[in-house]
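Archive transcription. Copying these from loose printouts into the bound notebook so they stop getting lost. Printout 1 of 2:
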Amino acid sequence: MFDMFSMMGKIKEVQAKMKDAQDSLQFITVTAESGAGLVKAKANGLRKLISLEIDASLLNQEDKEMLTDLVVAAVNKAMDEAGEKGRDEMKRQTEGLLPNIPGLDLNSLGL
């Protein structure tokens, strides 16, 4: 027989674990680079840019277009990696909390 109180307790546990997992995402960091390391972007698991390093050799007017392209590439790569690590961390911290229920889609929760 289905135990509603048990299920409600499990849902509260999942909510608490999800919050803890989301709070920990700010501490996950990734660094990505483009242009053989001339531009480096650092992002966290919340997909926020933390820092950007640009090699001094790129800081002249003639290379402005190339610099823009390298910055975009490094930031996009860092954001992709940060999102991936964030999803992995969320899955790791919430693994096994909910039973495998057919039709239950956790993708909308960021898992």
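Printout 2 of 2:
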Amino acid sequence: MSSDTDTVERIRGWLTGRLPDDWFEGSVEVTVDREEITVVGRIPAPNTEDVSDVERDAALAGRVSAFRESTRERRIEIARELEHRSGRKVAWGIDCGDRRDLFTRLAAPVMTRLRQPERQVLDTLVDAGVARSRSEALAWCVKLVAKNADTWLADLREALTHVEEVRATGPTTAA
């Protein structure tokens, strides 16, 4: 079994060979989970010296939109190849200036069982208008935890990498 790092490196390497050289500044950022590969590249920001924040935000949005439209057919072609190779869906994103836009992202259903106290939390969020449904409320909770627990989650992911390394060096069982 290959580690997640090997998978990311293999995908990033394939993309380096497959993507047009003039699309992105530097190498792409690749994030992989069970269902999806997210590819994020950096494009040059427009010159926005001596402009208001509103004009700068509009210029960045325009640059991202132009890139997205002009590369759509090639991105779809590359995504299909990668989906065939990996068995995962492919999402794209752009970094431009201090802005990050992700598009064509997968929303995977997740089934969970919750006891009454947890359901009451979700129902409170729905009743307060924070979310339209329990499903949306649960997604909101996950985003909030991810935002507020970044360091802890990074430490946990690093620990999982070490577990994977130890497993890889352990004894193997005969088939």
